[in-house]
Amino acid sequence: MEMEYLRSNVQLPTLTMTTTTPIKSDPLKTKVADDVGTLPVDLEGEADALADEDDEEDNQAIHIEGDLVPLHSAFVSWKSPTHANEDRAVIYRGSRFSVFAVIDGHGGDLASEFVKTHLVDILDEEPDLTTASLRHATATLERRFGELATAANDFSGACFVALVVVEDGSRTRFVINCGDCRISALERLKKHRREYKALSTDHKASCPLEKQRIARAGGYVIMDRVAGVLAPSRSIGDLDMKVPGMEGWVVADPEINEDVLCRDSLYVLATDGVWDVMSDRDVLRLAETSWLDNQVAHDGTVGCASSCEAIAQDSVARGSRDDITCIVIRTGDW
């Protein structure tokens, strides 16, 4: 996440871009204890392992292909030249559920790498997928990364938004949002009516409701930043913003909503490198146009990949200087 901290004094050169590609055939599995606060691995060792994993240039996403709920997806991740890409993405197709997530790291990439690596496993620990269990899973993610970050003396943080699709025939979908990433949808409703809409609300210190929440916790916002420092008001990690005396200012409490996945629809998840310069409607219209222009035969994945590229290119053209990560999902017509 570019310039997330006010104390950063980075001079922005001309943007260069790289595209990452899916590289994993299986999600990284880690045994975990039932206790939310227990991480049964050597913490410093895991921090080193995550750092080593990040050294691989194309290691921005876990990607699993499946043939469950009929849908196509693709992602792109472009970096700002001022630092290594701190964004991550997850595309996971499983027999129990599928997960699509974009993760925006700041202050380093340990937090975003941790969320990428452990999100699916932590969700899989929950016996049932409900609003309450997804809230518990997010708390687990925060607690376990907190242990790792404490051991590693790391103060990075990560915002994320995830679309979770239950693979039980119900087409139930959940949105988990913590921070200033966003998911928007162009959904096909009854009688062929379509609707452009955001499925999540940005958690930023500039948001009036978040300012009120922070004030109730005894905190303050200066120049649209929590304590004059951090722009997002909810995140995983950021231990230096969650010290005694600052409890409740920056939190990991997610926004969760439940609905039904619509047929013949487009879903776009992106980090704020996109949303800071493009509206929901502009992003969705561009995604739809590019998908229709570039789908090959019945391979909707090609159209999704073209939509991702178009969104990233337009974001740069509009002046974005942040890391840019985007997932486009096209559902089938069932």
Automatic annotation (TrEMBL):
GO molecular function, one term: protein serine/threonine phosphatase activity
A Pfam cross-reference name: PP2C
SUPFAM superfamilies, alphabetized: PP2C-like
InterPro entries: PP2C, PPM-type-like_dom_sf, PPM-type_phosphatase-like_dom
Occurrences of domain PPM-type phosphatase (ranges): 72-331
PANTHER family given in the database record: PROTEIN PHOSPHATASE
Protein name: PPM-type phosphatase domain-containing protein
Native organism: Aphanomyces astaci
Lineage, top ranks: Eukaryota, Sar, Stramenopiles, Oomycota, Saprolegniomycetes
